[in-house]
UniProtKB/TrEMBL annotation:
InterPro entries the record matches: Rossmann-like_a/b/a_fold (IPR014729), TilS/TtcA_N (IPR011063), tRNA_Ile_lys_synt (IPR012094), tRNA_Ile_lys_synt_N (IPR012795)
HAMAP family documented for this protein: tRNA_Ile_lys_synt (MF_01161)
Example of a GO biological process term: tRNA modification
Keyword terms: ATP-binding, Cytoplasm, Ligase, Nucleotide-binding, tRNA processing
Entry-linked Gene3D superfamilies: HUPs
Catalytic function, reaction form: cytidine(34) in tRNA(Ile2) + L-lysine + ATP = lysidine(34) in tRNA(Ile2) + AMP + diphosphate + H(+)
EC number(s) reported in the record: 6.3.4.19
Task of the protein: Ligates lysine onto the cytidine present at position 34 of the AUA codon-specific tRNA(Ile) that contains the anticodon CAU, in an ATP-dependent manner. Cytidine is converted to lysidine, thus changing the amino acid specificity of the tRNA from methionine to isoleucine.
Family per similarity comment: Belongs to the tRNA(Ile)-lysidine synthase family.
Gene Ontology CC: cytoplasm
This protein's record includes keyword Ligase: yes
Name of the protein in question: tRNA(Ile)-lysidine synthase
Length: 449
């Protein structure tokens, strides 16, 4: 990535962002002042501008403020780039930290690496927010990003939810994810940086036509000529969001009636209410169920949800259909079971006082146990771990927890190297390794919307 503060790609006649616009946007995003605020900052113009704007906003309200830069570990030069971003933020008086992922273990090879990297990014950010007491995390998506998202989802045949594009705010695992720049054009952000004398970096991937978003961006002039301006497209997205909000109430009522969360991370759902619901509300409910059990922020594509609903209604689910990291299968004559797909659980997490593992489970450990934390990791129990635990229970004359067999391997476990230390859901009396840190609290915390 290269510094390019005078790029001709960005108009120079726009005015900097007026603080009153940020005040109004933050009032929409945050119903109350958060205990801590952070910006996810890549070093690009958008996130650098947001960091500057929210630094002043937070200071005026005595709210602790910082930024996080994620290094996925996907490129050799990424670590140096992330360090450079943090240095430049530090010069501006902004606290900055690098969050690092391990690409091979956490992301895996093959398939949609971008999508898995995005999920990893969210998990790294959420874990750090929770550890630092940050209640609100801001992203720098702006007006043109919103318009591009609308067009990309239109091209995929998205429904009401997809065409609502990005929402200004949502909750996940105790952190409020906010996007206060959705109504602001990129030109205002670059103008703000120029006025402040702040440089930014240009990511070469933003010009790589292999990506759909880049091709949409390059068609901007032709779209504008047809009246499909960013302002009009984003306005349509806002109207779709109003329709979405109306449907959400019906979906809430349906899930309250039909579904039951289980503390071990799966959900059982009565088929009859799903069958009786309107198609739109039924699809919305399935999307929520899959996201919650799969620990994902972004719902699966609508056409895949439609195929899942068709299979549910015509009785052809059988032993299960996979979707977005979950398996949806029949459960008795009149229910379905939504569970995590073991093959897609890749994440190992280091110990911390509070950890959101796999986007699904919130684990709390005593602060005093962190002295030995580096020796342990949190990962899936897995088939081998479950078989070992079953042998231990049988030898001790204990009966295992009554759970569907497919659930146990997907549960979180504490490991010391390759040695199983504790499976907290299945070992309420304590760990196998006596000196292992004990879990103080454990809850199913997948996204609810």
């Amino acid at each position: 990535m290269t510094a390019d503060p005078t790029s001709k790609a960005h108009p120079i006649d726009a005015a900097p962002v007026d603080p009153s616009r940020i005040d109004a946007a933050m009032a929409v995003c945050l119903p109350r002042a958060p205990a801590g605020l952070a910006v996810a900052c890549s070093g690009g113009a958008d996130s650098m501008a947001l960091a500057l704007l929210l630094k002043d906003w937070a200071a005026a309200r005595s709210i602790p403020f910082r930024t996080y830069t994620v290094d996925h570990g996907l490129r050799p030069e990424a670590a140096e780039e992330a360090a450079s971003v943090c240095h430049r933020l530090g010069v501006l008086g902004i606290r900055a930290d690098v969050l690092r992922g391990e690409s091979e273990r956490a992301i895996g090879a093959g398939g949609d690496i971008q999508a898995r990297a995005r999920e990893l990014r969210y998990r790294l950010l959420l874990d750090r927010c929770r550890a630092d007491g940050v209640e609100a995390l801001a992203f720098a998506h702006h007006l043109e990003d919103q318009a591009e998202t609308f067009l990309l989802r239109l091209a995929r045949g998205s429904g009401v939810d997809g065409l609502s594009a990005m929402m200004p705010a949502r909750e996940w695992a105790g952190v409020r994810l906010i996007r206060p720049l959705l109504a602001m054009p990129k030109s205002a952000l670059t103008a703000h940086l120029r006025a402040a004398g702040v440089a930014w970096v240009e990511d070469p991937s933003n010009r790589d036509t292999r990506f759909d978003r880049v091709r949409v961006r390059q068609a901007r002039a032709a779209l504008d000529a047809l009246g499909l301006t960013p302002e009009r497209l984003a306005g349509t997205a806002r109207r779709m969001a109003r329709a979405r909000a109306a449907l959400e109430g019906d979906c809430d009522a349906l899930l309250t009636e039909a579904s039951r969360d289980h503390e071990t991370g799966y959900i059982t759902v009565a088929i009859a209410p799903l069958r009786d619901a309107s198609e739109e509300v039924g699809l919305r409910a399935l999307a929520r169920l899959v996201c919650r059990v799969g620990g994902r922020v972004h719902p699966p594509r609508l056409d895949r949800l439609e195929r899942l609903r068709d299979a549910l209604l015509d009785g052809t689910l059988g032993r299960g259909r996979t979707l977005a990291g979950t398996v949806v299968s029949s459960h008795g004559a009149d229910h379905i079971l939504v569970r995590r797909e073991l093959a897609t659980v890749r994440e190992d997490a280091p110990l911390a006082p509070e950890v959101l593992w796999d986007g699904r489970f919130s684990l709390h450990f005593p602060v005093g146990a962190m002295g030995t934390a580096s020796a342990y990791r949190i990962g899936a129990l897995g088939l081998d771990g479950w078989r070992y635990l079953r042998r231990v229970d049988r030898a001790a004359g204990r009966r295992g927890e009554a759970l569907p067999g497919t659930i146990r391997p997907t549960l979180p476990a504490l490991w010391r190297g390759e040695e199983l230390a504790h499976a907290p859901h299945l070992q309420p009396d304590g760990p196998l390794i006596e000196e292992a840190p004990r879990v103080e609290r454990l809850s199913f915390a997948g996204p609810r919307s």
